[in-house]
Amino acid sequence: MTEVRTSDALRHEIDSGRTGDKIAFPDPAAAPLGTDDEAAGVPPSAAAIAHAAAAETRQGGTAAPAASNETARAIDGAETERRENRRWLIAGTLIVLGVIALAAAVLLSV
């Protein structure tokens, strides 16, 4: 990881995966890193940024893997499979309830 001089640069290093703690993908944030200090009119000091950078860096300084379309497709595929399984569960439950209701109607008519 390169030396980080601003909180915005540190956030960019984190989002790009260069700190090694996450995949390279931007995280939406309601209050991005450093916003509180800057809003108070006191930007974070170089020492505070260096401390935050050290805390965010994976031991060994290796970069995390980048997100890929293949990863996204795998995640989407798993979600689709869960939805499909849920549909079969609901359909199966309705069929069983229908068979029970039909059996009860036949038994009550006898």
UniProtKB/TrEMBL annotation:
<keyword id="KW-0472">Membrane</keyword>
<keyword id="KW-1133">Transmembrane helix</keyword>
<feature type="compositionally biased region" description="Basic and acidic residues">
    <location>
        <begin position="1"/>
        <end position="21"/>
    </location>
</feature>
<protein>
    <submittedName>
        <fullName>Uncharacterized protein</fullName>
    </submittedName>
</protein>
<keyword id="KW-0812">Transmembrane</keyword>
<feature type="region of interest" description="Disordered">
    <location>
        <begin position="1"/>
        <end position="82"/>
    </location>
</feature>
<feature type="transmembrane region" description="Helical">
    <location>
        <begin position="88"/>
        <end position="108"/>
    </location>
</feature>
<feature type="compositionally biased region" description="Low complexity">
    <location>
        <begin position="40"/>
        <end position="55"/>
    </location>
</feature>
